[in-house]
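User: Show me an example of a complex going from sequences to structure tokens.

Assistant: Sure. Here are the input components:
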Amino acid sequence: MTRFEKTTCVLALAGGLAIPLLLYDQPYLIRVAASVLYFIILASSWNLLLGYAGQLSFAHAAFAGIGAYTSGLLSAGFLGDNFCTSLVENGLGVVSDLLCGENYSRDFSYGVHPGISIFVGGAVAAGIGWCLGRMCLRTRGPYLALMTLGFSETVRLILQIEHEYTRGSLGLRIPYLWTTDDGLPNHAVGYLIMLALTVITIVVLYYLVNSEKGLFFKAIREDEDVAAVMGVDLVKWKVNAFVISSGFAGLAGAIYAHLFVQVLAPQMLLLLEMGLILAMTIVGGLGTLTGPIIGAILLVVLWEFMRDISPYAHMLLFATLVIIVMKFFREGIFGLIARRLKAKNLISKAPPFTVE
Amino acid sequence: MDYYILAQVINGVIFGLIYALIALGLTVVFSIMRVVNFSHGEFYMLGGYALYALTAGAVTLFSIPLILPTIVGLPLAMVAVAIFGILVERGLLRPVYTARMDRPEEYAIILTFGLSLFLQYGALVTVGPYEMTPGSFWEGSKHIIGDLYLGGDRLFAAGTSVFLIGATLFFIYGTWTGRALMATAQNRVGSTIVGINTVRMNITAMALAGLLAGAAGALLAPVFLVYPDVGQIPVIKGFVIIVLGGMGSILGAVIAAVILGLVESLGSVYFSVAYRDVFAFLVLIGVLLFRPHGLLGQKARRV
């Protein structure tokens, strides 16, 4: 990392930490800031799939939904009365306290505490990501896009149809992860939790793509067959890309749901959500770590300004931006900026980590 | 005879024929350009809106409201969508096979997906989320046999589909242009060498896709009305069909379309109505897993 890059990172982090202090009396703006962080996580992890490993998946919003629904169902008492009492009867009172909570909440008396269930949500999303990655090993290009699209829509339809369990389009009410003493959510704390997850995601992705694993991913993106010939374990790294990105998506979906959403609906798995993630990544800059961050911030801010015009105008603008960026400068906004910065030697030109 | 089952079978065939119109366009474009057109569902939507604009009297031209008979509106709507398809090919998709670019597949998928969102939300912003009703092709419901009645519009849609599918098959297998199309699909470089203008073939493929998708959209507009995301479910059915029939296979698409229509109708009788749309996805995932080249498609050979 060059000095300029380090300074930018520190400034960005300081800015992120300053937001709840500056906006402490404006919960709406803190929510908006938190949604920026949510989209940064989703866009960055999707970028690992498409931008680094070259796997175009339309199932990323579905993984966020899987994480949110898994965690939501567990914490809203999906395990149910019988499961929890049977645990106690079998002498597993400790497990029951942990999973079911003794007097956790009046409404969600048999639910898992969200602090535990969010990790289960992330793990389930990563597990399903593993399955999808295995299923998609032989499919590439348009076939992969169709497969993941089919998977995503299937999950959405099942969540919508099985309303006896998921409450379908009525919405599943789930408990807060963090409340103040009066039982209301504290948005500033929620924002800081999201910020922590965002930083973890970015740091993990940074070390991943700047290690030799990153080179494996890029090799697969450029040419799968050549990569395989050169000794890259295609099965392992393609599946790993799916597991890591869907795990982060699931975790982000679960945490964001428990902090800010509160009522889950299958709408969060719509292709529209996928379109948002795609637009942020593409407009920001595919295949760079900074690109999706810039894209998410820019597009959410634009979205907030366009709320007054029409509830649909933002998506029209984003789609136009995607078409323009794809047609005229595929490296995205950050690609344009990076060109200038590289000329001035402000950011590193060569990959900072090379394989011996 | 149980007329309920018979009605479901006939309904399944009718839907299959309409799906075939959508899938034919997709598969022709894929076989010529190696592009899965994710905005094909919006071509379908545009067909419906074009018919509405031409026949419902909501649009005025030189202060005269346009109220054409629907039977005249149908071919005009088809042509309008075909022209739009040509513009898309010319403006957005041409770099896929002329310019040297990195990962053209990724470019094509993202671009057409972006175009799909653009058209959908463009329609939402300009005409709003309201359902619009174009005029009917054949009003009322028709008595078939016993207790069985079918909507005239559905029958008209099925009959027109049969005609259009036949015309398309004749065009592809029976004319020189169609043979040039097949040659381009088989080997792009080879067909250039023997003197086929492959760029013109791309235009032909997109125009054909526009004609067929526009026809499907216009034919079903009186039955299911027109609204901005009307094309989303049919196009996904189209994806399933081209994968099931074998990507790029024309006859395979027609057969797979009728199979899918029947699976959906009978599946909703014997299994669950709510899961009707899920069947298609399960078929899609199953085919991609176990028989990626589909029913009639050729096994892909990697060079």
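The lines above are the inputs; the final block is the predicted structure for all two components together. Strands of chain A lie at 172-173, 263-264.
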